[in-house]
Amino acid sequence: MNRRVDSIIESFLSEHRIYSVKYNIRPKDTIVLPPLSSNLLKNLMYLWDPLEPIKKLYEGSKRPRAVSFRFLKSSEGKPLFATASAEREAPLHMKKDQIYEGEYVVVSKDASWIGGALSNPYADVETSYGKATFELSEVKAWSAPSYDSASAFLIWISTPLFISSKIALPPVLEAKASRIPNSYILSISPGAIASSIVKQLMEHMGMVGKKDQKIPYFVLRYYDLAVREIDFRIESKVVLLGKDKNGKMRKAKGVVGKLYHRPLSRKVAESYGRLLSIGSAMGIGKSRGIGFGEIKVEKLDTAGSQEQNS
After folding, report:
1. E strand intervals along 110-207
2. Which residues contact 11 (CB under 8 A, 6 or more apart)?
């Protein structure tokens, strides 16, 4: 299974590159945000000419989209999203003259679009939510780190993660499961993470036929066996998604926190580490295109010492 996963990763990377485009954002006045702060970046994409090439990539792609919008982050690195517990509090907002970070994630077969982003790296833009100064801070292509010395991984889930309970069904159950309402799992296993990432790579490559659907199932089962769960500290969060056409606030429950996983062999560590690294660059799970499922990964060379501190 390690070879099969490595083959999928190599096929994806032979055709695609993952880019991060970051902006520093300074509001001219207090900006009241929608529940999904990433909507400001999507709005900016339609208003600011330098982002025209990114807009074309976004509009020219089907699901999964070639462009994702991450939640805005405060100067302390805290993602901005609204939760049900804060529904009666002050609305999500950006403070005047504070610096925030906005990030686009672009999955592209070439880098021809970058010139547009670099053509005008600084401007004041009147968005639908308020006026702010936008300054390009980074354009970076993802590169795979080495995980051959990793003995364990700490996975920090920084924005609510939504992995469907139907992420990797046995092929014989797919037809029956289509009649069951979808839900999201609250206990995140190594197999669920690996299966989710493999599935999104396959979708980017158009591997969505019936013969391909069994792969995520076998990936889930394999990594649940080959990666040990050492510890976890997660909590569920009900987040606000915005109002529907009837004016009712939509909500969903995902998880945030940390996971501590130890692969049982070096080969598993390499393949699982590569998947985690791609997941940290692209996001994981449903609605990653609007900021959910953002993770950070820490490689641990000495599992024992970290285990004592966890």
Report:
1. 122-126, 131-141, 152-161
2. 205
Domain 2-14+143-309 in this protein, CATH class: alpha beta
pLDDT: which is higher, 209 or 47: 47
Q: What is the pLDDT of residues 59-84, one digit of tens each?
A: 999 889 999 999 999 999 999 999 98
Residue spans of the domains in the chain: they are: 2-14+143-309, 17-141
pLDDT in tens, 12-28: 999 999 999 999 999 99
The residues that bridge with 252 in the sheet, in sequence order, are 239
The counts of H helices and E strands in the chain are 9, 11
3-state helix, strand, coil in the chain (%, to 5): 35, 30, 35
- Report the sign of the C-alpha dihedral through residues 79, 82, 83, 89, in that order: positive
Distances (CA, A) of 217 to 69, 169, 214, 252: 28, 6, 5, 25
Rounded Cα gap, residues 284 and 193, in angstroms: 8
